[in-house]
Amino acid sequence: MSHAAAVLGSKLLLLFLHVVASIGLNAEQQWPVPYRRFDRRPDVDSYCQALYPFCPTGDPDGRIPYMRDSDVVSVYRLQTPVWEFKYGDLLGKFHIMHDAIGFSSSETGDNFTMEWYELFQLGNCTFPHLRPEVSAPFWCNQGAACFFQGIDDVHWSQNGTLEKIGEITGRQFNDMARWVQDDNETGIYYETWTVRSDPGPNASVWFESYDCSQFVHRTYRKLTELGAKLSSRSQTNYTKIYLYSGEPTYLGNDSAIFGQPALENLATDIRKFYHAFRPHQSFIDLAFSLLEAYKKVVLDKSFYLYYNFEYWHLPMKAPYMQITYEEVPLP
Ligand SMILES: *[C@@H]1O[C@H](CO)[C@@H](O)[C@H](O)[C@H]1NC(C)=O
Ligand SMILES: *[C@@H]1O[C@H](CO)[C@@H](O)[C@H](O)[C@H]1NC(C)=O
Ligand SMILES: *[C@@H]1O[C@H](CO)[C@@H](O)[C@H](O)[C@H]1NC(C)=O
Ligand SMILES: *[C@@H]1O[C@H](CO)[C@@H](O)[C@H](O)[C@H]1NC(C)=O
Ligand SMILES: *[C@@H]1O[C@H](CO)[C@@H](O)[C@H](O)[C@H]1NC(C)=O
Ligand SMILES: *[C@@H]1O[C@H](CO)[C@@H](O)[C@H](O)[C@H]1NC(C)=O
Ligand SMILES: *[C@@H]1O[C@H](CO)[C@@H](O)[C@H](O)[C@H]1NC(C)=O
């Protein structure tokens, strides 16, 4: 089949899927699409190899120390520019920030850092690998919580934020710890993108990201639910990476798309789409990839989003992609 015919074929298929979606499933489609929870976290495929070990100083079994009920535990808001260890605060200027939460026990004087991040870095969670021997793009996209002893004051405060935002009891801390372990076991993959219909205040949200700042917001909400009062003297802003599109169309999972000859055009299109954006190890490569992605998306007005281990087609529209640093107030 010629390229033009293949493109036409996949356009027709998308149109078909869209029509099917709008007559059948659309009535029940819930937006934003709920992030899928799992019964338990699966083992990581051995193809995925971390350049930097995940959570090197945390407890190997993810245990969180028990606090006495009567303890008073301070809660800190922690924020620092991403990749700071390699690129100074360059990304801080673009406000690509990493968020975490700190705790310190007044009874023992011990303090701790808790964060949620990618097992194989941001590039691997944003773009898949195209492996010659596997037809479906291959994702190393797990993310997880890391709890470890110590708060590196200089690391957080020098180019970022270290601010005490409240106090909780030891009992509230222990309740939160149980919740974190369950959240960590059931929410297993990282999602970089938030997808909305436009940048305005009344936009439809099609997909929510699932990243370090979302974990921080969930934890703050949980602490509030447990009775904590949190407050900050400064504006609490967070990084969001947006895509803008019309109503998305559901395409299917790996076996539905890549296991069926009938959908070969779509499978080829998805592989082609991701070819330009293979995950990279250096930030410079990733930045170029994002630029390339931007150009492609603007020209083709098309994006294949992988969410809940399923593909969706996004009919992209201006301004296509944006990185913002916007306020999300404490609960
Ligand atoms: C991304 O995944 C690939 C494939 O496993 C791996 O070789 C690479 O080290 C990962 N990148 C980082 C930064 O961990
Ligand atoms: C979360 O899961 C990861 C991956 O299995 C594990 O390394 C980590 O210790 C867990 N963290 C917590 C706080 O349970
Ligand atoms: C803060 O940023 C400066 C300038 O980029 C850098 O030299 C310094 O190492 C950073 N501080 C920390 C604690 O990483
Ligand atoms: C955490 O503990 C270390 C070591 O005792 C101390 O240097 C640091 O100031 C503490 N940080 C906070 C925010 O409590
Ligand atoms: C958003 O919706 C509200 C309530 O329906 C309306 O009052 C407001 O004018 C809308 N704002 C924009 C920018 O469309
Ligand atoms: C993929 O989707 C099909 C239905 O389209 C479903 O039957 C199958 O269980 C799904 N596979 C996985 C691994 O979720
Ligand atoms: C924080 O967010 C608010 C509202 O979302 C915005 O007006 C403000 O400029 C942001 N602050 C910074 C430092 O970007």
UniProtKB/TrEMBL annotation:
GO terms for biological process: lysosome organization. It catalyses: 2 1-acyl-sn-glycero-3-phospho-(1'-sn-glycerol) = 1-acyl-sn-glycero-3-phospho-(3'-acyl-sn-1'-glycerol) + sn-glycero-3-phospho-(1'-sn-glycerol); 2 1-hexadecanoyl-sn-glycero-3-phospho-(1'-sn-glycerol) = 1-hexadecanoyl-sn-glycero-3-phospho-(3'-hexadecanoyl-1'-sn-glycerol) + sn-glycero-3-phospho-(1'-sn-glycerol); 2 1-octadecanoyl-sn-glycero-3-phospho-(1'-sn-glycerol) = 1-octadecanoyl-sn-glycero-3-phospho-(3'-octadecanoyl-1'-sn-glycerol) + sn-glycero-3-phospho-(1'-sn-glycerol); 2 1-tetradecanoyl-sn-glycero-3-phospho-(1'-sn-glycerol) = 1-tetradecanoyl-sn-glycero-3-phospho-(3'-tetradecanoyl-1'-sn-glycerol) + sn-glycero-3-phospho-(1'-sn-glycerol). One of its GO terms (cellular component) is lysosomal membrane. One of its GO terms (molecular function) is palmitoyl-(protein) hydrolase activity. InterPro entries: CLN5. It holds the Pfam family CLN5. Transmembrane segments: none annotated. Residues 1-22 form the signal peptide. It comes from the Eukaryota. Keywords: Glycoprotein, Signal. Catalyzes the synthesis of bis(monoacylglycero)phosphate (BMP) via transacylation of 2 molecules of lysophosphatidylglycerol (LPG). BMP also known as lysobisphosphatidic acid plays a key role in the formation of intraluminal vesicles and in maintaining intracellular cholesterol homeostasis. Can use only LPG as the exclusive lysophospholipid acyl donor for base exchange and displays BMP synthase activity towards various LPGs (LPG 14:0, LPG 16:0, LPG 18:0, LPG 18:1) with a higher preference for longer chain lengths. Belongs to the CLN5 family. This is Bis(monoacylglycero)phosphate synthase CLN5. It comes from Parambassis ranga (Indian glassy fish). The lineage of its organism: Eukaryota, Metazoa, Chordata, Craniata, Vertebrata. The gene is cln5.
